[in-house]
Amino acid sequence: MNMRLISLLVLCCILGSMKVQAQKLQHLWDKTAQYYKGFNIRDQAVKLAKQDSIAAQIKYKPILQAQLQQGLSSVAGTSGAFLPLPGVINISAGANLEGSSSTFNHFLSGTMQWDILNFGRKGLDMAISSTAIAQARLDQEVFQLDIQQQLSTRYIEYLYYQTLKEWFARHAGRYHSVLTITRGLAKGGLVPGADSLLASSSLKHVQSALLQVDGKAQGIKYLIKELSNTEMAEAANGVESPFMTLMGPEETELAIHPLLKMKEQDAESLDLLHKRKAREVLPRVQLLGGLSNRSSGISNMGYVSGAYGDVYSDFANNYFVGVGATWNLQDLFRSKVDREKIALQLQDNRHEQELLTNELTAKQQQLKAELQASERGIAESKQSMDEAHAAFSLYRTRYEGGLISLSDLLQVQEILLKTEHEHLMAYLNYWQLMIKLSYQQADFNPLFNHF
Fold this sequence. Notes:
The chain has helices spanning 2-18, 25-35, 38-58, 121-187, 194-228, 258-279, 331-400, 406-440, 445-450; strands at residues 63-74, 98-99, 102-117, 284-296, 303-304, 315-326. By secondary structure, it is of the alpha+beta class. It has a single domain, classed as Outer membrane efflux proteins (OEP) (Up-down Bundle), CATH 1.20.1600.10. The strands form two sheets. It has a four-stranded antiparallel β-sheet, with no helix packed on it. Helix 1 crosses helix 4 (121-187) and helix 6 (258-279) runs antiparallel to helix 7. 22% of the residues are buried. The model is unreliable at 1-21 (pLDDT under 50). This is Outer membrane protein TolC.
């Protein structure tokens, strides 16, 4: 146990003096963008939206159908031309026939339907599909901001625990020096021997806290690796480290937040859908065509043969070309109801856009105000910490001279520990506010550049 504590103290001191450079936040983000599987899922969503767009256009392409029928049937009825659809059986023959009562039939046909006049429905469907693709890409942007926020939060917490670990190590060194002084004074009979036990107890308390902080720092490494698949190196601590250096005011061009863009995209999609519903009251005009190849075992003289080979003895070929219009009058009523519903949805969307804009603006103003207060608080806590350092040095000198008791010195040391911890917490709060502001502004580049 003691060897582990000594090793940890030595490591902290070495790292504090060497200032080992940890991974940059920008580097971790680049690794996260390459590794984290959540981005692959969003890429697939964009591809699916593109496939849906392609599928939506298929109905405007020519519909081609073909069929081949060969079978045995009875023959009765009257002659006449016909063009049955696939799957429809048509049995027709002359009235006065001789020979067999049944014969083989052959029928081969192909039909075509093609929308030649859709009154702009095709273009609107393409535009609606494009908005779905744009929506999927905006979802990618929102997801990217969420991951950037997660990564930045974990990185800042890692730097915080690294810095806190070094500061606890320094405090442990101070407590160890107090213990050494106390033992010397106890041997000289200047202080009670119990003071050595009190100093040793205080040292062990700080050492225990140091081990807990080190455990949290190690745990944060795994959370960073979950996103970036990168092993974290020890961070460079000290007053000049990025964690202990404020960013200061930085003018950046405010971008429209992806959440607001998604609302705007929803409005565009609803507007297109409203126009699309208005076109549904118009008819569908189609070009129609068909070819048929027909024969049977019935000769031109009206003799019916039951032999299969006679089905190929006489063929009749026909064609059909025309224009057809389909108009569902019920669409006149349904389209009106649908458009009224979409109009209400558009109105709700405009209200939601206004609410979201006000919410984003208010949050940014709130965070900026809190950041200004946080900067002033850091300056005040720095002054408080410096005064606590000076007080501890004076009290330790007086303790060495036997002018004050150990409990007085330990009380000052505890105040110093508290002020230093509050100073670090002020920096942590500052960076947490900065991360939130970066998310609200949809721009993490200034934060990445700082670290």
